[in-house]
Amino acid sequence: MTKKERIPKRIQEIRIDNPHSPGYALRWINIVNAGRQEINYFKKKFGFSDDHLRASVSTAIAQRPMVEVRDGYIFIILHFPTFQGEKVVPGEIEFFIGHGYLITLHNNNLKPLNNFFTYCQKHPQELLAYQTESSSTLLYELLNRLIKDTYIILDHNSVNISETEEIIFDGKPKEAAGKILNLRRNIINIRKITKNHATIMESLQDMKSNLVPRESIQKHYEDLEEHSRQIWDFLDMQRELVEALHDTNESLLNNKMNDIMMMLTIFSVLLLPLTLITGIFGMNTIKMPLVTSPNGFWIIIAIMLASLLALLSIFKRNKWL
Questions:
Q1: What integer best gives the mean pLDDT of the chain?
Q2: How would DSSP label each residue in 13-66?
Q3: Which of 115, 152, 172, 224 counts the most CB atoms within 10 A of its CB?
């Protein structure tokens, strides 16, 4: 009796089976937080490279995307932006693509991937890959969902930029400063994550398939390349807007600080003659004028008020107040 093959629990699989092509089904194998058991299973089942399998462990974080063509399969590492609270962080996916299968490994932090996997389970006949039964087509559909989800993040940035602009011109520069810093961080992170997407989509245009004409593959991945370049251009525009908001906010903060310094300076100048008069009449000397006079106190107060009013009139005439 043949021993039944044991499949690790973290492995989920969809079979996209078009009845018009009997005896053949496209497999999508999805793994969340791959551990040693899952890695050993793929090594035994598919014979993938040890380097690629080590890079696919959930604890291994790649610092750069890559595409490597090996005998019988293509290994891809890609990062896509996702929100963690208000912060944009990279979500990493490893892809193994070969004839009749697509394997994805990730840490379950990319909602579009999970949503598309569920959609494929419920509506496989709605997929373009259902018609072609090609793993290259299924990969295209998945990447299309992931790349277009970046537009949602960019739209979120646009809303935050508009809100920040309103806050700035409502006279709340300190509140705006925090939002500007968050926007700058998110835009920098998205740029780092998506920087090589267009180049990778361009390299995938040379993918070969026995089921889909090369022209169709090229057209699909040219579309993804174009979206990647549009996202990059949109990020450049958002970066310029945020920098303009930052400069405006800094100008308002500087103006406010200048107003505060001006008021403090005026206050100090107004107190200067009062301090001088008080110091003079506070000296312990013989025959100090007005000190022995019955109305000396009020005369000194009158002198102080007169000097204060004189300075105020000078400031007002020069429009310093």
A1: 86
A2: EEEE--TTSTT--EEEEEEES--HHHHHHHHHHH---HHHHHHTSTT---SS-E
A3: 224
